[in-house]
Amino acid sequence: MARKDKKQTAALGEEFAKFAGSVTGIAMLALMLIFPLFISSQSYSNILRAKYKFFWILAVVMAGLCLLAGLLWFFTDRMENRGEGARKFAAHVRETGWKKLLSAGDKGLLVFIAIALISTLTSEYLYESFWGNEGRYSGFFLLALYTVMYFLVSRFFHFKQWYLDAFLTAATLAGLFGITDYFRMDIMGYKVGVPLETADIFTSTFGNINTFTAFLGMSLAVAAGLFAVEKDWRRQLWYFLHLAVASAALITSQSDNGYLAAAALFISLPFFLFGTRTGARRYLVILAVFAAAAAWVGWVNRTMPDTVIGLAGIGGAVTTLPGLPALAALLWLAAGGWYLYDRKKGRTGALAGAASSGRTSALGAGGKSALGDSSSPADPAAADRLGPLPRRIWKWAMILIAAAMVCMFVDANLLGNGDRYGSLANFLVFDDQWGNLRGFAWRITFKDYLEEFTPLQRVFGYGPDTFGIITTTFNRMEMHYATGQIYDSAHNAYIHYFATIGPIGLGGYLVFLAGSLAAMAKHWRERPALLALFCAVLAYSAQAMVNIDLPIVTPFMWAFVAMGIACVRRNGE
């Protein structure tokens, strides 16, 4: 009888987990495939509200169904098994301990949402803090939904790579719409009757170009990550096409934010890929695709300036670089020549051979791999391995470049030598005009924090998404005379959280991001698709330094983190 009860208890738990896995799977598919293309009407006027409503309904339905299934499991367990399942769960928690059940990222997130709740309850603007209706709908309600989605997906979701294929399918369609908008074709008819100067800053199914670029940065990262680790040539071609469209769409999106995402991608990939010849070759191809896309956009801008919107800022500088077409051709020749040389030497199938021999690693760590091309030498993993030297060289090169940039920044700002850097001074000299007046927004944020906030507000912030209330309360006239507009966001996600949720809440958020990225980086060899998720989260986090968290695009970042941790946890189990 006792054995029968144990079987019934196990079956109940398995049924609940299976149901929750199905619910989270359907929700993630809707988010990956439908949400990018969703827009409620032939207009951009209500796109923020429409996509916000889509996401919160999706998240609430997912959470509600899982909650109902959990309650059903609990009462069924009590009725049929006298609560044996609940007792076993409680015993497991006591035996393991909450600290071991929660990762570093989980703990950081709990601190973040707890401080956000305290910030909401202690805010002078409780209603606005909860709903975020005076900002971009990123109040406590939305932050709580992100948190619930993360824990449900990270615990129950069964990751399959085709979820990322679905995301790339929708992202490529959105990217193509964006490219046609760059040519002012407006094939969706969303800009009819809109003044040209306004129409040009709205694009695709995401509205504002900065928002669209945040999405494209993740699309580029996912396509590059999957292309880098894919072993089947047909799927390589599939990801290559997505990579090409994402590169062209990001460049034509007009926003400089995307180059932060691209830089984070290009800087991080060698730490994963330079362990093998195959990985290094794939990296050259990724660079070649991006360079070729930039060269193409530069050619279009020169040959048909009256047809396209045109580029300024970093985009204008990149697409007009002297010798850019030659650089793209050189990268293609280097990648192709290296491949032909390795094929002649019998090295191109090294990783495929390693996989077939039953080892358990990828990209130069030895063992089962996600890469490989054709042949199968005697020791394929050893033949493909480059060793630690290339990654060490890359690491020190990045350290030296970072140190040089810090020295230049100090020299340009603290020592007042900005003039010596020519056009680079626009990026090095930090003042109110920096980053299209982002410098002004950041300066008044810290000024208000130090001079206007109460001691309690300095700890817990002014209230989630109340930045617009802060600036209109303390900086209305200064904003009017300096910029002629109202700032309802700091245009930096981290500074925004610092002011609205406080330094402790921001610290929790940073621990959440860093802990999640570290977990994915640690386990990507066992599940190579984790590299794509890692790159997507990193790319979003990089561009967030000059951009806004919005319910139009931020849900993807939270979903990628949750999917990555679900993959890590399942691999560990």
TrEMBL record:
Q: Which UniProt keywords apply?
A: Ligase, Membrane, Transmembrane, Transmembrane helix
Q: What is a single molecular function from GO for this protein?
A: ligase activity
Where on the tree of life does the source sit, at the highest rank?
Bacteria
Membrane spanning residue stretches: 20-39, 54-75, 109-127, 139-157, 164-185, 205-229, 236-253, 259-276, 283-301, 321-341, 393-415, 494-517, 529-546, 552-568
What is the protein name given in its UniProt record? O-antigen ligase family protein
Which organism encodes this protein?
A: Candidatus Lachnoclostridium stercoripullorum
> Lineage of the source organism?
Bacteria, Bacillati, Bacillota, Clostridia, Lachnospirales
